[in-house]
Amino acid sequence: MIEAEDMMAGVEDMTGIDVMTRIKRKSLSTNYLKTNLQKGVTAMKKRNIVVNFLVLLMLIATFAACAATSTRESSGEYVDDSVITTKVKSLLAADDFLKSFQISVETYQGTVQLSGFVNSQKAVDKAGEIVWSVKGVKSIKNNLIVK
Fold first, then answer.
1. I want to staple 81 with a disulfide (CB 3.0 to 4.6 A). Which of 101, 107, 128, 142 is the partner?
2. Is the pTM here over 0.85, yes or no?
3. Crossing angle, helix 121-132 and helix 75-94, to 10 degrees?
4. Domains (ranges, CATH) in the chain?
């Protein structure tokens, strides 16, 4: 029985190249393409892993940057503190008894600090009552001085 390879041996195509040589070249180039394709897929998988890892690191860094520390507030806490400060200042300015005094208000993590000068202990107590009436106040540092 004659095999196809033996039959094709010595047969040339229109360009003058042996048909078996052409088939072998095509086979080699197909294998070469498959190998390169596999390398490309592997490289792309590695690239995707690296990109996903970098995105994860950026997310972790973002959350860490917005977190509160013992010396620094988070973004949400800063907004809450500024709202508390604004409410306390407006209530102190609206009170007929206290509006004539210069009372400074600062808030950090829900702790309101009052400072300034007043003319009586009654003013100190009244300012403390006003601060406690504001939602979100956790504690008060009443540093008002009676002169």
1. 107
2. no
3. 130
4. 1-66 (no CATH), 75-146 (3.30.1340.30)
